[in-house]
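Researcher: Please predict.
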Amino acid sequence: MTFVVAAFLPAMYIAAQESVAMDWLRASRNPVTASLAGAGSASSVQGTAFSFLQNPALAPLEETTLGAAVSMNMTPSGEGHSNGLAAGAAWRLGKFSVHAGYASMRYPETALSSDGGGAAGTFKPSNMIIGGGLGFAFTDYLSLGANIRFAKEQLSSKVAVSGINADLAALFKMGGLGVSAGVYSLGPKVKSSGNRTYALPASAKIGASYDLAFGESVIGFVADADYYFNANLGAAAGVSYAFKDMVFVRAGFAYGSLKDDFTAAPVPTHFSFGAGLKLYGAQLDLCAKIIPDAGTALCGGLSYSF
């Protein structure tokens, strides 16, 4: 797993000197991981359906054959008012896994100006991600996975930014312990309408998890840390409680650094909590994220696995 991170050290140095665009690539669209403040890259708690946005090495080590999910994300009020939809699926074929998905987000109407400075109507900015990936289990305990995605941000009817980004991650799981390492959202620079280039919000991520079972209950602990290649830092930790693999309660906290030059980690500091209910393989999950000075974001989703 050290090789996964070390192979991209030159890219880390270069991106640290550039401005970053498309921060929304790092937003959690999964209500389970969102309720853990985005943590869980080394844990089965995240499920496999959203593997195209999460750790692509998880699915080959899971017992489930198929996982599928759909979620809705929204910020009801405030400057970040938005609403979005995400859907994904993962299929395990022996030691291999394949996964794919789509996510989009829409924002409130903004006023447009003509070349002369007058009003030119309104436009709703939006973004979207579509992609997929593969995973392979080398042993019962170690796997490697990769994602590739196309992302596009529509800033106005005439202005859009798009690019390709990828993840590469390794995962070790034995008993209740999980450890992961990888690089996420790595890709070529994107160019704005003003011909200015921006790096993507890429990072080197490490994660750890531990499940403590007693009777019919399981308490799970998860923690992730990101070093973003623009020299910002991010960290998240969460705890979950499951009863009979049927009722779930979760909470988490995330920290995102803010430097003196006003550049910030893509995922801001926030608290989160959520709950879930699972019956016959179908699961409903709900989450709320409390972001200081920005309001509350909500996320809910349905998933199915067998």
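Model: The radius of gyration is 19 Å.
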